[in-house]
């Protein structure tokens, strides 16, 4: 165990899956992870909005990360989760296929061409450790595009 005051603090990330893509958010960007809630759909609504659900005493839009990444939306499964993130003094529930683990990464790089098939800037960086890589989501781009389109 290292105790040096100069040592860089390792940041933990929540890994989650959206289709075949492993994504991650810094643990301090996540308020809560919950099982899928009942969602009331709205006909002719925006495709990235799965519908509405009560959360923390308010009715909020439930956002599909699959659709925001350009993937087709799918039915929920027992592993579907909602990652609740704070955003602009409110909370936004993000639907993901599954939440996998809490990890620390040892190296980061700019997104490669493979990650550019998604919205430009949606991944801040690509994180690597010994057994996998994950796209670190940029919530400002992910949710900023959503609020601009509404």
UniProtKB/TrEMBL annotation:
<dbReference type="Pfam" id="PF01584">
    <property type="entry name" value="CheW"/>
</dbReference>
<dbReference type="InterPro" id="IPR036061">
    <property type="entry name" value="CheW-like_dom_sf"/>
</dbReference>
<dbReference type="InterPro" id="IPR002545">
    <property type="entry name" value="CheW-lke_dom"/>
</dbReference>
<protein>
    <submittedName>
        <fullName>Chemotaxis protein CheW</fullName>
    </submittedName>
</protein>
<dbReference type="InterPro" id="IPR039315">
    <property type="entry name" value="CheW"/>
</dbReference>
<feature type="domain" description="CheW-like">
    <location>
        <begin position="10"/>
        <end position="148"/>
    </location>
</feature>
């Amino acid at each position: 165990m290292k105790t040096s005051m100069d040592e860089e603090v390792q940041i933990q990330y929540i890994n989650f899956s959206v289709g075949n893509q492993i994504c991650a958010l810094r643990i301090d960007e996540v308020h809560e992870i919950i099982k899928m809630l009942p969602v009331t759909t709205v006909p002719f609504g925006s495709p990235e909005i799965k519908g509405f659900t009560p959360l923390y005493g308010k009715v909020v839009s439930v956002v599909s990360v699959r659709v925001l990444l350009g993937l087709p939306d799918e039915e929920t499964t027992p592993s579907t989760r909602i990652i609740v993130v704070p955003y602009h003094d409110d909370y936004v529930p993000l639907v993901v296929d599954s939440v996998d683990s809490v990890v620390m990464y040892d190296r980061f790089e700019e997104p490669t061409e493979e990650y550019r098939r998604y919205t430009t800037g949606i991944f801040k960086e690509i994180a690597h450790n010994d057994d996998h890589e994950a796209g670190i989501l940029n919530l400002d781009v992910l949710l900023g595009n959503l609020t601009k389109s509404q």
